[in-house]
Amino acid sequence: MSKYEQEILSTVNLYGRISVMELARILRVSDQTVRRIVKPMVAKGSLSKVHGALVSTQNVLDPPFLARMAQNRAAKVAIADAVAGRIPDGSAIAIDTGSTSGFIAQALRARKNLTVVTNSAFIAATLSMEEGNRVFMAGTQLRNHDGAAFDRAAYDVIAGFSARTAILSASLVHPSKGFMVYDQCEADMARAMSDIADQTFMAVDSTKFNEAQTSPALRLPGLTEKDVLFTDRTLPAAFRSLPGDAELVIAGVKTQADSN
Protein backbone atom coordinates (compact mmCIF):
# COMPACT_ATOMS: atom_id res chain seq x y z
CA MET A 1 0.00 0.00 0.00
CA SER A 2 1.40 3.40 -1.02
CA LYS A 3 1.83 6.31 1.38
CA TYR A 4 -1.19 8.12 -0.11
CA GLU A 5 -3.33 4.98 0.08
CA GLN A 6 -2.41 4.52 3.75
CA GLU A 7 -3.12 8.19 4.51
CA ILE A 8 -6.48 8.02 2.75
CA LEU A 9 -7.46 4.80 4.52
CA SER A 10 -6.43 6.16 7.93
CA THR A 11 -8.29 9.44 7.37
CA VAL A 12 -11.50 7.77 6.16
CA ASN A 13 -11.41 5.33 9.08
CA LEU A 14 -10.88 8.27 11.42
CA TYR A 15 -13.87 10.26 10.13
CA GLY A 16 -16.11 7.33 9.23
CA ARG A 17 -17.54 9.27 6.27
CA ILE A 18 -15.87 12.15 4.45
CA SER A 19 -16.36 13.93 1.12
CA VAL A 20 -13.73 13.65 -1.61
CA MET A 21 -13.26 17.44 -1.52
CA GLU A 22 -12.66 17.49 2.24
CA LEU A 23 -10.25 14.56 2.01
CA ALA A 24 -8.30 16.36 -0.73
CA ARG A 25 -8.10 19.46 1.46
CA ILE A 26 -6.78 17.48 4.44
CA LEU A 27 -4.16 15.67 2.34
CA ARG A 28 -3.28 18.83 0.36
CA VAL A 29 -3.79 17.20 -3.02
CA SER A 30 -6.31 17.70 -5.82
CA ASP A 31 -9.71 16.00 -5.75
CA GLN A 32 -8.74 14.34 -9.05
CA THR A 33 -5.73 12.76 -7.30
CA VAL A 34 -7.95 11.44 -4.53
CA ARG A 35 -10.46 9.98 -7.01
CA ARG A 36 -7.66 8.30 -8.95
CA ILE A 37 -6.13 6.70 -5.85
CA VAL A 38 -9.39 5.59 -4.21
CA LYS A 39 -10.87 3.95 -7.33
CA PRO A 40 -8.89 0.68 -6.94
CA MET A 41 -9.30 0.87 -3.14
CA VAL A 42 -13.08 0.95 -3.55
CA ALA A 43 -12.87 -1.94 -6.03
CA LYS A 44 -10.93 -4.00 -3.44
CA GLY A 45 -13.42 -3.17 -0.70
CA SER A 46 -10.95 -1.19 1.41
CA LEU A 47 -13.36 1.76 1.23
CA SER A 48 -16.93 2.37 0.12
CA LYS A 49 -18.09 5.30 -2.00
CA VAL A 50 -21.58 6.81 -1.67
CA HIS A 51 -22.82 10.00 -3.38
CA GLY A 52 -19.43 11.70 -3.61
CA ALA A 53 -18.35 10.64 -0.12
CA LEU A 54 -15.97 7.93 1.03
CA VAL A 55 -17.17 5.64 3.80
CA SER A 56 -15.10 3.48 6.13
CA THR A 57 -15.58 -0.28 5.89
CA GLN A 58 -13.76 -0.85 9.18
CA ASN A 59 -15.48 -3.59 11.16
CA VAL A 60 -16.82 -2.21 14.45
CA LEU A 61 -16.77 -5.75 15.86
CA ASP A 62 -12.98 -5.71 15.89
CA PRO A 63 -11.08 -5.99 19.23
CA PRO A 64 -12.36 -3.77 22.08
CA PHE A 65 -10.07 -0.78 21.51
CA LEU A 66 -11.11 -0.39 17.87
CA ALA A 67 -14.73 -0.98 18.83
CA ARG A 68 -14.51 1.86 21.35
CA MET A 69 -13.00 4.10 18.69
CA ALA A 70 -16.06 3.40 16.53
CA GLN A 71 -18.41 4.63 19.27
CA ASN A 72 -19.44 8.30 19.09
CA ARG A 73 -16.88 8.70 16.32
CA ALA A 74 -17.99 12.16 15.12
CA ALA A 75 -17.63 13.66 18.59
CA LYS A 76 -14.19 12.13 19.09
CA VAL A 77 -13.02 13.39 15.71
CA ALA A 78 -14.20 16.91 16.58
CA ILE A 79 -12.44 16.79 19.94
CA ALA A 80 -9.29 15.42 18.27
CA ASP A 81 -9.24 18.27 15.76
CA ALA A 82 -9.69 20.83 18.55
CA VAL A 83 -6.87 19.34 20.61
CA ALA A 84 -4.51 19.09 17.63
CA GLY A 85 -5.21 22.74 16.87
CA ARG A 86 -3.70 23.64 20.26
CA ILE A 87 -0.52 21.60 19.79
CA PRO A 88 2.19 23.62 17.99
CA ASP A 89 4.78 22.01 15.73
CA GLY A 90 7.82 20.91 17.71
CA SER A 91 5.89 20.21 20.94
CA ALA A 92 6.76 17.55 23.49
CA ILE A 93 3.61 15.70 24.55
CA ALA A 94 2.52 12.72 26.63
CA ILE A 95 -0.61 10.84 25.50
CA ASP A 96 -2.56 8.17 27.36
CA THR A 97 -4.22 5.12 25.84
CA GLY A 98 -7.91 6.07 25.62
CA SER A 99 -9.93 5.70 22.43
CA THR A 100 -10.33 9.49 22.18
CA SER A 101 -6.56 9.75 22.48
CA GLY A 102 -6.32 7.40 19.50
CA PHE A 103 -8.26 9.91 17.41
CA ILE A 104 -6.09 12.72 18.73
CA ALA A 105 -2.99 10.83 17.59
CA GLN A 106 -4.49 10.56 14.11
CA ALA A 107 -5.20 14.32 14.06
CA LEU A 108 -1.67 15.06 15.28
CA ARG A 109 -0.24 13.56 12.09
CA ALA A 110 -0.75 17.04 10.65
CA ARG A 111 1.75 18.49 13.15
CA LYS A 112 5.50 18.40 12.53
CA ASN A 113 8.54 17.47 14.62
CA LEU A 114 6.68 16.24 17.68
CA THR A 115 8.37 14.51 20.59
CA VAL A 116 5.88 12.01 22.00
CA VAL A 117 5.80 9.62 24.92
CA THR A 118 2.90 7.20 25.23
CA ASN A 119 2.04 3.86 26.77
CA SER A 120 -0.21 2.99 23.81
CA ALA A 121 1.16 0.83 21.00
CA PHE A 122 -1.58 2.16 18.69
CA ILE A 123 -0.62 5.79 19.31
CA ALA A 124 3.11 5.06 19.11
CA ALA A 125 2.64 3.34 15.74
CA THR A 126 0.40 6.15 14.44
CA LEU A 127 2.86 8.94 15.19
CA SER A 128 6.21 7.20 14.82
CA MET A 129 5.80 6.85 11.04
CA GLU A 130 5.59 10.62 10.53
CA GLU A 131 8.88 12.14 9.35
CA GLY A 132 10.48 14.40 11.96
CA ASN A 133 8.68 12.91 14.97
CA ARG A 134 10.49 11.28 17.90
CA VAL A 135 8.26 8.75 19.64
CA PHE A 136 9.03 6.93 22.88
CA MET A 137 7.02 3.82 23.71
CA ALA A 138 6.70 3.55 27.48
CA GLY A 139 6.63 -0.05 28.65
CA THR A 140 7.39 -3.54 27.41
CA GLN A 141 4.37 -5.74 28.23
CA LEU A 142 1.15 -4.81 26.39
CA ARG A 143 -2.42 -5.52 27.47
CA ASN A 144 -4.20 -7.76 24.96
CA HIS A 145 -7.41 -5.72 24.67
CA ASP A 146 -5.93 -2.29 23.87
CA GLY A 147 -2.18 -2.64 23.37
CA ALA A 148 -1.38 -0.47 26.40
CA ALA A 149 1.56 -0.88 28.77
CA PHE A 150 1.39 -0.38 32.53
CA ASP A 151 4.44 -2.31 33.72
CA ARG A 152 7.24 -0.79 35.82
CA ALA A 153 9.21 0.10 32.69
CA ALA A 154 6.29 2.24 31.44
CA TYR A 155 6.30 4.41 34.56
CA ASP A 156 10.10 4.70 34.49
CA VAL A 157 10.04 6.04 30.92
CA ILE A 158 7.28 8.54 31.73
CA ALA A 159 9.10 9.74 34.86
CA GLY A 160 12.24 10.49 32.85
CA PHE A 161 10.37 12.57 30.28
CA SER A 162 9.54 16.29 30.23
CA ALA A 163 6.45 17.40 28.29
CA ARG A 164 4.70 20.62 27.40
CA THR A 165 1.27 18.94 27.42
CA ALA A 166 -0.22 15.75 28.82
CA ILE A 167 -3.25 14.58 26.82
CA LEU A 168 -5.56 12.45 28.95
CA SER A 169 -8.98 10.81 28.66
CA ALA A 170 -11.45 9.38 31.17
CA SER A 171 -13.83 6.42 31.37
CA LEU A 172 -16.57 8.47 33.02
CA VAL A 173 -17.12 11.93 34.47
CA HIS A 174 -19.07 12.48 37.71
CA PRO A 175 -20.35 15.94 38.76
CA SER A 176 -18.71 15.83 42.20
CA LYS A 177 -16.03 13.15 41.86
CA GLY A 178 -14.67 14.48 38.57
CA PHE A 179 -12.79 12.46 35.95
CA MET A 180 -12.68 8.75 36.68
CA VAL A 181 -11.29 5.45 35.39
CA TYR A 182 -11.86 1.78 36.17
CA ASP A 183 -8.33 0.56 36.82
CA GLN A 184 -5.72 1.70 39.34
CA CYS A 185 -2.98 1.46 36.72
CA GLU A 186 -4.85 3.95 34.50
CA ALA A 187 -5.21 6.41 37.38
CA ASP A 188 -1.51 6.03 38.22
CA MET A 189 -0.48 6.58 34.59
CA ALA A 190 -2.62 9.72 34.32
CA ARG A 191 -0.93 11.14 37.43
CA ALA A 192 2.50 10.22 36.09
CA MET A 193 1.83 12.02 32.82
CA SER A 194 0.37 15.07 34.56
CA ASP A 195 3.41 15.27 36.83
CA ILE A 196 5.87 15.60 33.93
CA ALA A 197 3.81 18.09 31.89
CA ASP A 198 3.37 21.86 32.11
CA GLN A 199 -0.35 21.56 31.39
CA THR A 200 -3.04 18.90 30.94
CA PHE A 201 -5.57 18.57 28.13
CA MET A 202 -8.51 16.42 29.29
CA ALA A 203 -10.45 15.07 26.29
CA VAL A 204 -13.84 13.46 27.00
CA ASP A 205 -16.87 13.14 24.75
CA SER A 206 -20.35 13.98 26.00
CA THR A 207 -21.40 10.35 26.53
CA LYS A 208 -18.92 10.10 29.43
CA PHE A 209 -20.80 12.58 31.65
CA ASN A 210 -22.76 10.47 34.13
CA GLU A 211 -24.62 11.53 37.27
CA ALA A 212 -25.24 7.95 38.44
CA GLN A 213 -23.49 6.63 41.53
CA THR A 214 -22.19 3.62 39.60
CA SER A 215 -19.18 5.59 38.37
CA PRO A 216 -15.71 4.04 38.68
CA ALA A 217 -14.15 4.60 42.08
CA LEU A 218 -10.76 5.79 40.87
CA ARG A 219 -10.32 9.51 40.36
CA LEU A 220 -7.96 11.21 37.95
CA PRO A 221 -6.11 14.42 38.87
CA GLY A 222 -8.29 17.53 38.87
CA LEU A 223 -7.73 20.38 36.43
CA THR A 224 -5.99 23.66 37.27
CA GLU A 225 -6.17 27.11 35.69
CA LYS A 226 -3.49 26.28 33.10
CA ASP A 227 -5.33 23.15 31.91
CA VAL A 228 -8.03 22.68 29.25
CA LEU A 229 -11.14 20.47 29.14
CA PHE A 230 -12.21 19.45 25.61
CA THR A 231 -15.66 18.01 24.95
CA ASP A 232 -18.26 18.09 22.18
CA ARG A 233 -21.38 19.54 23.86
CA THR A 234 -22.29 22.16 26.41
CA LEU A 235 -21.90 20.64 29.86
CA PRO A 236 -25.10 19.41 31.57
CA ALA A 237 -26.22 21.64 34.44
CA ALA A 238 -24.85 19.31 37.12
CA PHE A 239 -21.36 19.53 35.58
CA ARG A 240 -21.11 23.28 34.95
CA SER A 241 -18.68 23.85 37.83
CA LEU A 242 -16.50 20.84 36.93
CA PRO A 243 -13.81 22.66 34.90
CA GLY A 244 -13.14 25.01 37.82
CA ASP A 245 -10.49 27.50 36.71
CA ALA A 246 -9.54 25.44 33.67
CA GLU A 247 -10.50 26.51 30.15
CA LEU A 248 -13.48 24.75 28.57
CA VAL A 249 -13.47 24.05 24.80
CA ILE A 250 -16.63 22.81 23.07
CA ALA A 251 -15.58 21.21 19.79
CA GLY A 252 -17.90 21.50 16.80
CA VAL A 253 -19.16 18.16 15.49
CA LYS A 254 -19.43 17.82 11.70
CA THR A 255 -22.70 16.36 10.47
CA GLN A 256 -23.18 14.17 7.42
CA ALA A 257 -24.49 17.23 5.57
CA ASP A 258 -21.22 19.06 6.31
CA SER A 259 -19.26 16.31 4.56
CA ASN A 260 -21.38 16.32 1.38
Number of strands: 13
Q: Main sheet?
A: 7 strands, parallel
Strand % is 15-25%
Rg calc: 18 Å
The dominant shape is globular
List the total number of helices: 10
Low-confidence stretches: 255-260
- Helix and strand succession? HEHHEEHHEHEHEHEEEHEEEEH
Helicity range: 25-40%
Structural class: alpha/beta
Strand order of the largest sheet: 6-5-4-7-10-12-13
End-to-end span in angstroms? 27 Å
Mean pLDDT: 87
Write the layout of secondary structure elements.
Blueprint: H1 3-15, E1 17-19, H2 20-27, H3 31-44, E2 47-50, E3 53-56, H4 64-70, H5 73-84, E4 92-95, H6 99-107, E5 115-118, H7 121-128, E6 134-137, H8 152-159, E7 163-168, E8 172-174, E9 178-181, H9 184-195, E10 197-203, E11 218-219, E12 228-231, E13 247-250, H10 256-259
Parallel strand pairs: 4-5, 4-7, 5-6, 7-10, 10-12, 12-13
Antiparallel strand pairs: 1-3, 2-3, 8-9, 9-11
